[in-house]
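User: Let's play a game. I give you a shape written as tokens, and you guess the letters that built it. Ready? Here's round one.
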């Protein structure tokens, strides 16, 4: 006995021996010096092979291993340590931080995992903690053989356990519980002794916990293991998760008589068990589960969870013969904000948008972030299209007001496509796909609205993907062509301007017109690159003609809404113009009324900046949008372009020309130039001349022409146009 105590004392008093292995000499020395400063015996190994050699020569209490080492990596050294010195603990010190690597190291026997670069105090605390745990384990093993002779030592070990240790009598009352219950749940052991164990069970787990100990097949070889929630002292809501392992007490191995039978209750102990706190593990599992089914930025359900709920809703709707609606929402102008203000502001905007959208929903609706700036919305159990229509209008109205992002006030709209079960599809994928198709039809019509899916919207998806691929290649291969439609003075019949119009010389389909590919360019956000190529080519061509003697020749360029809405629109446009030395006074940009009215304040500022440089502003398709005298008076507008639909209404002796009369009279009153589009006949031209229309363009003078034809036209003396039929 004395010899055993001497050995134990010697083992506990000696300085722990630690092996440190790393392939970086400087880090190895730093780590070794740090450990020596705390009085540890340290051996250094440069790499895995040296570590294994030292394991063969010397016994260690602990090994600190890097994972990425040449010749033999940390996992191989861990395996060798386990074979040669199973009592030697292992702590991994590595720059690898992936979940799979950490999990693998812990499964292979590592007691802890420290990521580089490490905090010295944290590392020392971890080392001392692991050594302390190993010391407790060794002490536990040493006294195990004397447990029957020393009840006091037994209680010390039990109370030093990291887990709650308890004993229950036949009726389930606590007859012993260790001191760990105080630090984990806040109870004094004396408070719980004599209480039924359901006293600390969460109400939701009382029935399950009580039934668990009544099972007929519980034995020493088949203990009862279950996870329950235990209440902390003083609050019924504060609970922690525990994994409980309970064994029946075998009377043959522990004959309970006299003082040993039941602790504080005086009744024989029937069950012995431990309760391990697994709260952190449960919270980690809950977080991982949340991550799998939610978008962490907006906290909304993600695509996977949305599809699960939609599948269930379809099953219920089919069984109950009800309708449901799926909405596909795409934010308008979000990319402009994200590209200009940065992703952090873009994320804040998505969170703010989510907050507003959620206020419009009914209980039971599911709003999800489908990806990027796209959202999907499930409306179960609707009566018909009107229910979905009302929600769509609420969503659009909710996003009308500006969003304040720091010092920036930004505007976004939303385009919504709606598919209704069962007429728009009877499967999950079809409903989502058709809502997406309907949303793109909203985009094509000017954004910030909603549409229901109809069969007429069906598109050949494969053909669309093929065309998108070809369009991307066309931008790389310079397959786009710029044609020019002359703008002719109605009095002198001379060319005064050229409107640049894009064409696509497709290698297989021949010459394609804007209607064949511009909507797709808008959808795929390629319209910016497309417009850049058009402006570059037009500035080169028209700049050459201006330099050759036609100094007053004007270039008119159509711009897409997405370009004009971009915060850096003015800067980007003028940089491209300056790059070609194109005179700003000869440039006229054409925008629609709807673009102006979407954000009048911001567009007004941009147009004034452009006008200050000499660039002219024209309103295209005038008369088809808002036609507000207010904005015409406030903005630096130079030209109104009468839409061709009104020009076509001109017939000799008919009343259809009254709109054209009003527009031209208004332009004269505001001292604006007027250009009539779509002029095709002598009658139309004569009528427009009689009203004092300044300029005309259209098939009366022929279709838009390539640059070579314009060069020949401008070379003619007088620039006079003859009717081409």
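Assistant: Ready! My guess for every position:
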């Amino acid at each position: 006995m004395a010899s055993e105590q001497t050995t134990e004392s010697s083992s506990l008093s000696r300085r722990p021996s630690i092996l440190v292995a790393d392939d970086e000499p400087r880090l190895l020395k730093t780590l070794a010096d740090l450990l020596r400063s705390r009085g540890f015996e340290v051996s250094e190994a440069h790499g895995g092979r040296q570590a294994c050699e030292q394991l063969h020569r010397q016994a260690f209490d602990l090994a600190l291993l890097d994972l990425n080492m040449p010749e033999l990596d940390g996992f191989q050294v861990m395996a060798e340590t386990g074979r040669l010195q199973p009592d030697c603990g292992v702590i991994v010190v590595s720059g690898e931080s992936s979940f799979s690597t950490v999990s693998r190291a812990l499964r292979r026997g590592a007691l802890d995992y420290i990521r580089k670069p490490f905090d010295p105090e944290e590392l020392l605390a971890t080392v001392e903690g692991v050594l302390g745990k190993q010391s407790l384990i060794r002490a536990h093993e040493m006294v195990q053989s004397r447990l029957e002779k020393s009840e006091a030592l037994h209680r010390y070990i039990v109370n030093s356990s990291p887990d709650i240790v308890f004993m229950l009598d036949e009726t389930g009352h606590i007859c012993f519980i260790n001191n760990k219950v105080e630090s984990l749940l806040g109870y004094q052991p004396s408070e719980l002794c004599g209480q039924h164990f359901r006293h600390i069970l969460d109400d939701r787990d009382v029935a399950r916990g009580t039934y668990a100990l009544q099972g007929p097949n519980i034995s020493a070889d088949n203990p009862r293991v279950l996870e329950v929630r235990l209440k902390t002292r003083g609050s019924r809501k504060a609970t922690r998760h525990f994994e409980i392992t309970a064994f029946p007490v075998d009377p043959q191995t522990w004959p309970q008589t006299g003082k040993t039978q039941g602790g504080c209750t005086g009744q024989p102990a029937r069950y012995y068990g431990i309760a391990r706190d697994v709260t952190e593990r449960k919270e980690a599992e809950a977080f991982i589960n949340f991550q799998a089914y939610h978008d962490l930025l907006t906290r909304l359900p993600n695509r996977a969870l949305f599809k699960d709920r939609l599948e269930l809703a379809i099953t219920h709707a089919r069984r109950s013969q009800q309708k449901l609606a799926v909405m596909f929402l795409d934010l308008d102008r979000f990319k402009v904000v994200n590209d200009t203000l940065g992703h952090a502001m873009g994320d804040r905007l998505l969170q703010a948008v989510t907050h507003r959208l959620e206020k419009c929903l009914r209980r039971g609706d599911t709003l999800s972030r489908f990806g990027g700036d796209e959202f999907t919305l499930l409306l179960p159990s609707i009566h018909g299209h009107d229910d979905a229509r009302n929600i769509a209008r609420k969503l659009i109205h909710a996003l009308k007001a500006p969003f304040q992002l720091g010092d920036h006030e930004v505007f976004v709209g939303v385009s919504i496509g709606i598919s209704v079960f069962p007429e728009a599809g009877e499967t999950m994928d079809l409903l989502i796909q058709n809502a997406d198709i309907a949303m793109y039809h909203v985009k094509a019509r000017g954004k910030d609205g909603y549409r229901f899916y109809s069969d007429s919207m069906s598109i050949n998806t494969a053909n669309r993907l093929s065309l998108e691929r070809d369009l991307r290649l066309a931008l790389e291969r310079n397959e786009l062509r710029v044609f020019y439609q002359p703008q002719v003075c109605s009095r002198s019949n001379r060319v005064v301007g050229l409107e640049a119009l894009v064409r696509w010389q497709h290698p297989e389909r021949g010459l394609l017109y804007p209607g064949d590919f511009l909507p797709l360019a808008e959808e795929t956000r390629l319209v910016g690159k497309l417009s850049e190529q058009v402006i570059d080519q037009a500035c080169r061509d028209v700049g050459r003609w201006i330099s050759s003697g036609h100094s007053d020749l004007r270039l008119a360029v159509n711009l897409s809404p997405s370009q004009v809405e971009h915060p850096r629109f003015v800067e980007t446009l003028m940089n491209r113009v300056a790059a070609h030395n194109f005179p700003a006074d000869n440039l006229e940009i054409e925008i629609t009324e709807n673009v102006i009215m979407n954000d009048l304040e911001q567009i007004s500022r941009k147009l004034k900046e452009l006008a200050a440089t000499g660039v002219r502003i024209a309103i295209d398709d005038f008369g088809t949008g808002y036609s507000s005298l207010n904005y015409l008076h406030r903005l630096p507008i130079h030209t109104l372009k009468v839409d061709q639909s009104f020009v076509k209404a001109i017939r000799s002796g008919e009343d259809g020309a009254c709109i054209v009369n009003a527009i031209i009279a208004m332009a004269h009153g505001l001292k604006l130039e007027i250009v009539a589009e779509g002029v095709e006949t002598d009658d139309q031209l004569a009528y427009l001349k009689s009203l004092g229309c300044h300029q005309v363009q259209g098939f009366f003078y022929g279709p838009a022409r390539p640059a070579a034809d314009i060069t020949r036209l401008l070379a003619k003396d007088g620039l006079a146009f003859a009717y081409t039929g």
